[in-house]
Specification:
This protein is of the alpha/beta class. 47% of the residues lie in helices and 14% in strands. The longest helix is centred in the first third of the chain and has 30 residues. The protein is globular and about 65 Å long.
Length: 367
Amino acid sequence: MAQETHQTIIVPTDTELLQAQADLWRHSLYYLTSMTLKCAVELGIPTAIHRLGGAASLSALTTSLSLPTAKLPFLRRLMRLLATSGIFTADNTTEVEVYRLTPMSHLLVDDVGIENHTTQATLVLAATSRHCVEAAIGLTDWFKKDMVPPLASPYEEVHGAALFDESMTRLDAEFDMVHNQGLAAHDNLGIDIILQECRSVFEGLQSLTDCCGGNGTTAKAIIKAFPNIKCTVLDLPRVINTISDGSGINFVAGDMFKFIPPSQAIMLKLVLHHWSDEDCINILARCKKSIPSREEGGKVIIIDIVVGSCSGTILEAQLLMDIAMLVNTRGRQRDENDWSDIIMKAGFSGYKIVKKLGARGVFEVYP
């Protein structure tokens, strides 16, 4: 008879339990960091600090934001948390405490004409909206519910509508507009860095189609850097029909699941993570039909998150983005093995990760 093995349970020390309790407080209350960030954006604190010369006391902020003076002590508490979280810095070396912008809060400054600056304020407002929070609260019920594939997202289950769909416009047109603006801000930030660091991806191209290219911000940046590339932007009719300034771009209203305008290269920038593996394979297969052979320079350019490409806070951000996809869409974030799988299943001969920039990877995919 085999001798039973008993695992020894290690009991945490009192010090470890006290630290664990503090950690549980942090994790249970992290949503308050998101809500204070939302509050700061809605009040316009980053923009106010910028307009005050990049540094502001609480009293200057209170005046600039037209807040009641009685709220100053409460504003101090809000700013203390945001400074501890790295959104602002607090300078205590002077008689009056002064708050300054960090790189993170620079991304939240609105309408001040900073070169290559795309404000991310609408992204924060979309991510912390009532709609997204309610969908996340419904996560437990979603896991318990027996559903027939393809599985609707928790967002769809809670609201009866899907992001990127006209059903969302019918549910809440104002939020749909904020969400689309936030998505555009998220997608367009960093294109200048990509064009500088990955010039070889675009050099020699004669034509490029930007799938889900929105208002053409990315395409305009490509044309500016590479004037010889003829750019086409494909997006849904409700997006394209609002655009009046083409700036030399060919805008096409359509559905990428049905038709992608032919060109030498197709670009999918932060698109595929919104879709299931099956949908991604269909999208990529449609791309393959719209490009020439590899010998003729045909390729698909994918710019998207590659989970595990970094560590620390960037990895945490990648994993949080994955849960955001789980809650709000039918998509997911993928590691390199996942990307390889859908690329090869779509019929491509190979791919190369040209460069990893922050949380993102830049792929060349070959027919």
